[in-house]
Amino acid sequence: MVRRTGGEFRKSSAILPVAGGFQLAGMGQGERSQAFDRRLNRALVYGGVPEHWLAGTQALLVGDTLARYFIWDAKRALDYLVSHPAVDPERIGATGCSGGGTQTTYISALDPRIRVAAPLCYMNSFEVL
């Protein structure tokens, strides 16, 4: 597995805030690790995808879905975004790749505050590509 840690892959993380946008750090990404052990001071599950599998399985076992939590999370981010005086609530868009593309698709269908959506790709397996 190749892990992209810089270069073109991360350029949007630097460009979006400078261009007046923001980037939502999703559950299991960076400081939002859900499987963090404070005693060991490290994550018990590494990377967003394995952490999503763990959380998704736990949700399914209780009759829920992980997608619902991602959608709730994105809606709360929108609540915060529209509360900021520098934000024009009529000009909010969303974009993303992989899980971000999936979230873009869901949130743009379920929240009218998203005026334009440009999912770059959806989550899938390498074999599907």
Write up this protein.
The chain is mainly alpha-helical and 129 residues long. It has 2 domains: 38 residues, no CATH class; 57 residues. Helix content is 43%, strand content 9%. The chain contains 4 helices and 4 strands. The strands form 2 sheets. Strands 1-2 form a two-stranded antiparallel sheet. It has a two-stranded parallel ribbon with strand order 3-4. Strand 3, helix 4 and strand 4 form a beta-alpha-beta unit. Helix 3 packs across helix 4. The radius of gyration is 16 Å and the shape is globular. The two termini are 15 Å apart. 12% of the residues are buried. The N terminus is likely disordered.
Characterize this entry briefly.
Helix 3 crosses helix 4. Helices cover 43% and strands 9% of the residues.
Low-confidence parts lasting 5 or more residues at pLDDT below 50?
Answer: 1-7
Oligomer: single chain
Q: Provide the gyration radius in Å.
A: 16 Å
| Percentage of residues in strands | 5-15%
Return the string of H and E elements.
HEEHHEHE
Taking strands numbered 1, 2, ... along the chain, how are they ordered across the largest sheet?
Answer: 1-2
Count of domain modules: 2
Shape: globular
Which descriptors apply to this entry?
129 residues, mainly alpha, 2 domains, two-stranded antiparallel ribbon, two-stranded parallel sheet, 4 strands, 9% strand, globular, disordered N terminus
How do the strands and helices of this protein lay out in sequence?
Blueprint: H1 8-18, E1 36-37, E2 42-43, H2 48-61, H3 66-83, E3 93-96, H4 99-110, E4 116-119
Parallel strand pairs: 3-4
Antiparallel strand pairs: 1-2
Helix pairs in contact: 3-4
